[in-house]
Write a structure and sequence with these properties.
The chain is α/β, with parallel strands linked by helices. The protein is built from 15 helices and 22 strands. The longest helix has 16 residues, at 283-298. It is an enzyme of class 6 (ligase).
Length: 463
């Protein structure tokens, strides 16, 4: 745990007692803050109080005496309407911050030169974060992995000279972290997302830009106009910028040429082969790998260490995760693909697919995935979206209404065996999970269990 000693003796309000909020409350208590914590869910308040965390209705506070409001990242700060706790704080002139800001302050106090890699972007954040942390650990670096990837940052070991913190940051977290200053900041890409929370694409992009704006080294993907503009602004301001691309060969920077990651600059050209690395299939992973190469180079790793990290990367659980193989049939868990855009990279990565799709449908359905339909040998449709997806597939693609995930796995495995060739049974639902599963992680585990129940299966280790 990182004790929040920068708040020792200070009056702090905290709203949001979910996973990261509760971890933040513990860190504040450990650091000696005078804390009052609250949540709109009475059960969360009761659970915190049972741990000895001081709780109370924040409406009753004397906000003139409060030094900071710590807001969980899932709680609206500005749009569509500020949460009432944020409004109370702002009306009293109280700063509103989050756990990444507390981490940044503790790093500044404990070890300001401790290596800190922060990653953001619309797509690919989690895979890139996991890949960078894996490569650092594989070559023996003391590495802490956390943030939006599912491990609250304040549960990690404290900043220390030579200890790397690799932290995935959402736009919500960046918005609550005004002193965020990574050693290496990475902005992968920008496309419309979370606009209900940020009001406009311009606001969303400006928040993401903050992560790289104060970085010692800014690694920026330049395949979209917003990121190209960010790179240009920072370079004009005298910042050190490393450009990356999955589409365009760069005279200076790191790019994916369809087969290799290429690092090019004044020292010449160096190639990092991705062929044969199953966990880094697809052009989208070409960008993730390019981002990792640029970041790891900035962190001081040798080319041999970088290659070893890429080659041994097991992949991110629930994101194009290789679960097992039965003969020529590969089983892939892409449960994290909760909308059509997220499912597209997996569909683009394989040539003959038994596609398990469905769940709680998102707006737009799967119409945008039509260019990949020729790759689909058959679809196995589950959950509430099954009739909608069947209507979209029509007579072009064979499908069956499997209804449940276990039935879909058995049917897809049977049909793949009968076909007798190289095929992929792919769970890439293009839907939320909430009609049948608590979250996409539980759905992915259910897929693994269903695959494990097949006769003759060779299961792979989890990433």
């Amino acid at each position: 745990m990182i004790a929040a000693r920068s708040f020792k003796g200070r009056s702090v309000a905290l709203f949001g007692l979910g996973g990261s909020g509760l971890a933040t409350a513990r860190a504040l208590v450990a650091g000696g803050a005078q804390l009052t914590a609250f949540d709109d869910n009475p059960r969360s308040v009761e659970a915190a109080a049972a741990e000895g965390i001081a709780t109370g209705d924040l409406h009753a506070l004397d906000w003139r005496a409060v030094d900071a409001l710590i807001l969980s990242p899932g709680v609206p700060l500005t749009h569509p309407k500020p949460h009432w706790a944020a409004e109370l704080a702002k009306s009293a002139g109280v700063p509103v911050i989050g756990d990444i800001e507390i981490f940044s302050r503790e790093r500044a106090a404990l070890s300001p030169q401790a290596p800190f890699v922060a990653i953001t972007g619309t797509n690919g954040k989690s895979t890139t974060t996991a890949l960078i942390a894996h490569a650092l650990r594989a070559c023996g670096r003391d590495t802490q992995l956390g943030g939006n990837i599912g491990v609250p940052v304040l549960t990690l070991d404290p900043p220390l000279q030579g200890r790397f913190h690799v932290v995935e940051c959402s736009s919500y977290q960046i918005d609550l972290a005004p002193s965020l200053r990574p050693s290496v900041g990475l902005l992968l890409n920008l496309s419309p997302d979370h606009l209900d929370r940020h009001g406009s694409m311009e606001n969303y992009a400006a928040i993401k830009e903050r992560l790289v704006a104060a970085s010692d080294v800014a690694v920026i993907g330049v395949d979209d106009a917003h990121c190209r503009a960010v790179a240009g602004r920072l370079e004009a301001a005298g910042r050190r910028v490393v450009r990356i691309s999955r589409e365009t060969p760069l005279e200076e920077g790191v790019f994916f040429d369809g087969a290799d990651v290429v690092r090019r600059g004044q020292a010449g050209e160096t190639r990092f082969a991705l062929s044969g690395i199953g966990s880094l299939r697809g052009r989208h992973n070409g960008q993730n790998a390019a981002a990792a190469v640029a970041t790891l180079t900035a962190c001081g790793l040798s080319d041999a260490e970088i290659r070893a990290g890429l080659t041994s990367f097991p992949g991110l659980v629930h994101r194009m995760e290789q679960v097992g193989r039965r003969g020529p049939v590969l089983f892939i868990n892409d449960s994290k693909a909760t909308n059509a855009d997220a499912a597209a990279p997996a569909l683009a990565s394989f040539m003959r697919i038994r596609w398990i799709a469905g769940g709680l449908p998102k707006e737009g359905g799967i119409a945008s995935l039509e260019p990949f339909f020729p790759r689909i040998a058959k679809a196995y449709l589950i959950g509430e979206a099954a009739p909608l997806f069947a209507a979209t597939l029509g007579e072009r693609i064979p499908y069956e209404i499997s209804a449940t995930l276990d039935v879909a796995v058995r049917s897809a495995a049977r049909d793949a065996d009968e076909a007798g060739g190289e095929e992929v049974v792919l769970l890439s639902p293009a839907c939320a999970s909430f009609d049948q599963f608590r979250n996409f992680e539980v759905r992915g585990e259910a897929f693994r269990q269903a695959v494990a129940g097949l006769a003759g299966i060779e299961l792979f280790a989890k990433g």
